Amino acid sequence: MGEAEEAIEALEELGLTEYQARCFVALAQLPHGTAKEIGQVADIPRSRVYETMDRLREKGLVEVHETEPRMYQSVSVDTAIQILRKEYESYFDTAERTLNQLEPTYKEAQQGVWAINTYEQVTGRIVDLITDANDEIVLIVLDEDLLDENSLNALAEVGDRGVNIHVGMVSEATDERVENAEVDATVFTTDLIEWFTAMSGSPRLGRLLMVDQGPVLVSALHEEQLPGVPNETAVWSDGIDHGFATFAERVFTYELKDNVPMEYDEDR
């Protein structure tokens, strides 16, 4: 695929129609052009060029010189990117505003185990669970790449309001990242964590989280589909009234009682 086609695809992803993208890319390669010239370079019917250029003009991406025949020129690439970025960001603002208005003030929690299919979704759920914590967080990280900035920031915020934080890990790099993020946490490791970390093959355990001895999340790492992008899935539950969550809660509790005795209340 040539650069022009890549640019056309990118512009379509940013909201332009195929004809709009083709005309803009064609005009970007010319100092200026008539509808006939633009149509030839863009490889679209001349009869569609006029309407398309009017739409691009309305978007602020094209300037028109009222001559005979009419001449067009594109705005600079920097200006075009600023216009498209602003319009694209406005979609996020609109989506956030309207979805917040549609969402009920109170959503009843549905008991059960929920599946999550991407690294971004897993991280988002972990951040949400951490943010909602009132008393205690136990986070076990079996791969240092999974201790991301968003999770660290969330841990630091709840730590500032007095939530007890325990981070289980093996890698010294993970310990350093927790310290550098100024997270007030008890960092520990155990034989079980070392055993989990030493496991090879795919899938393998990634992150384990328990909040307020209730909601739990367990993630798995699979073989990477894209270089440098974790391929992570997870299941989580908002309570401990069934097998998966009860098992996970018992594991967390055992690990803390045996390895963080000064920080964990054994009467719980």
Number of extended strands: 9
Helix content: 40-55%
Category from helices, strands and their pairing: alpha+beta
The count of helical stretches stands at 10
Which residues form runs of ≥5 with pLDDT under 50? 262-268
Please tell me what the overall shape is. Answer: elongated
CA radius of gyration: 27 Å
Outline the fold blueprint.
Elements (H helix, E strand, L loop, with lengths): L2 H11 L4 H11 L6 H8 L3 H13 L3 E4 L5 E4 L2 H26 L10 E4 L2 H13 L4 E6 L7 H12 L3 E5 L3 H9 L5 E3 L2 H8 L5 E8 L4 E11 L2 E9 L5 H17 L9
Parallel strand pairs: 4-5, 5-6
Antiparallel strand pairs: 1-2, 3-9, 4-7, 7-8, 8-9
Helix pairs in contact: 1-2, 2-3, 2-4, 3-4, 6-7
What do these coordinates show?
The protein is of the alpha+beta class. The protein has ten helices and nine strands. Strand 8 (216-226) and strand 9 (229-237) form a beta hairpin.
